[in-house]
Amino acid sequence: MEPRGIRIRMYRQALQQLKGDLSTISAAHLNDVDLLLLSRKPSGKVNLSRGITVMRCYEKLAFSSENYTLPEQYELHVEGPGSYAIPCGGSFSVEFAHAPGTWKNIPAHVVYLDMDAVPFPWQIRTFRPGDAFFPLGMGGSKKVKNLFIDRKVPLPSRRRIPLFFSGDTLFWVGGVMPAASGRITADTTSVLKVEILDTPA
Q1: How far is 2 from 183, CA to CA, in rounded Å?
Q2: Concatenated DSSP letters of 13-25
Q3: Contact between residue 127 and residue 155 where contact means Cβ atoms under 8 Å apart
Q4: Residue 34 is part of which domain span?
Q5: Which one of 63, 67, 100, 144 has the minimum C-beta count within 10 Å?
Q6: Computed over its alpha carbons, how large is the radius of gyration of the chain?
Q7: DSSP label at residue 3
Q8: 69 in a domain, yes or no?
Q9: What tens-digit pLDDT sequence spans the chain (201 residues)?
Q10: CA–CA distance, 69 with 111 (Å, rounded to integer)
């Protein structure tokens, strides 16, 4: 971890970018932010002046103003291959493809699927409490909430991650982990490539 002096300068820079000035930010505010980062608790928040909030999720700090709102719940229906905008920001594409020659180094924002195992129409939506799936390479089911915790996904980001469903089956936590349900096997005849092209900040 950086020395305290460098941390304080980084907090000042983040607040400067968010507010435009530091007129209402005191040394006590900066100290509160530092104590939040150094706390043994993995998450928490402090409220600074004029609606400025600093949230901690594991080793990350998020600076936001009172104008920040979580993305709305949404559900997007996908009938087949094409390009689609994600309502809370970003987009993804679905196209026919060949199975990759190697499964190494495939980026997290790309998944290859057996089309017959996850037939259309698909539903892409935001996370809801109780969502669970069978992660690829694991022996049992896992709650999406626990996956987010394990992967240290910040709380404000969890509602921005699209979940991909075929019927009631969650087959991809977009950009995080695929499920076993859509895996390609020796019997696969039609392969789909899904790629998240861009995501909101």
Answers
A1: 43
A2: HHHHHHHS--TT-
A3: no
A4: 4-64
A5: 67
A6: 20
A7: -
A8: no
A9: 789 999 999 999 988 888 788 888 999 999 999 999 999 888 888 888 778 888 887 778 888 876 555 557 889 999 999 999 998 788 999 999 999 988 888 999 999 999 999 999 999 999 999 999 999 988 899 999 999 989 888 777 888 899 999 999 999 999 999 999 999 999 999 999 999 987 644
A10: 30
